[in-house]
Inverse folding.
């Protein structure tokens, strides 16, 4: 019984591990893309962030 | 008579036209000056705050700071949402900061209690031993 459970867990782990690795790789590439975009266009990003923050503040004030 | 009036009125018209042109020119000049001053102030601010450097060093931090500035400008500081966020942050911060201190204190206390109980045990053992020795 225990061996069966261990085998199942191993199988599930082997099946899930590549997906987790893929998700991690995608997340890290997205992170680097976003960071490089911010570095390339700092003014646009900062002004956009200020505008978004302003809107959130307005909405929070109304609510 | 009419010709004189017409000429005077035409003169006034010309004068008013000139004044309007002069006013428009002055407005455009002042707008140009204001624009150039604003550009200068922005570039000076950029240089003073080293914004590009900061963004290069901490891109997400810079964006978060800009979001916070916008939030404050939008008047969101004294709102229930802010109080909720602050309370959540405080709760998490207190947990993160106090837990290790509490852990250390508890381990010190446990050590002290363990030492005390051991010494008490020894004393108790001695006391218990004395009567048995007396007997």
């Amino acid at each position: 019984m225990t061996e069966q459970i261990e085998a199942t867990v191993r199988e599930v782990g082997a099946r899930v591990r590549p997906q987790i690795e893929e998700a991690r790789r995608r997340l890290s590439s997205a992170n680097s893309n976003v960071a490089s975009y911010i570095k390339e266009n700092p003014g646009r990003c900062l002004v956009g962030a200020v505008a978004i923050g302003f809107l959130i503040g307005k909405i929070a004030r109304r609510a | 008579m009419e010709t004189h009036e017409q000429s005077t009125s035409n003169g006034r018209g010309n004068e008013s036209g000139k004044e309007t042109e002069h006013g428009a020119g002055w407005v455009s000049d002042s707008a140009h000056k204001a624009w150039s001053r604003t550009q200068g102030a922005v570039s000076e601010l950029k240089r003073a705050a080293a914004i590009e450097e900061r963004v290069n060093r901490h891109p997400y931090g810079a964006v978060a700071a800009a979001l916070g500035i916008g939030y404050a400008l939008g008047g969101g500081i004294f709102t229930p949402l802010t109080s909720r966020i602050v309370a959540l942050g405080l709760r998490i911060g207190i947990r993160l900061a106090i837990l290790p201190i509490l852990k250390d204190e508890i381990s010190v206390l446990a050590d002290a209690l363990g030492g005390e109980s051991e010494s008490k045990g020894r004393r108790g053992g001695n006391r218990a031993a004395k009567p048995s020795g007396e007997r």
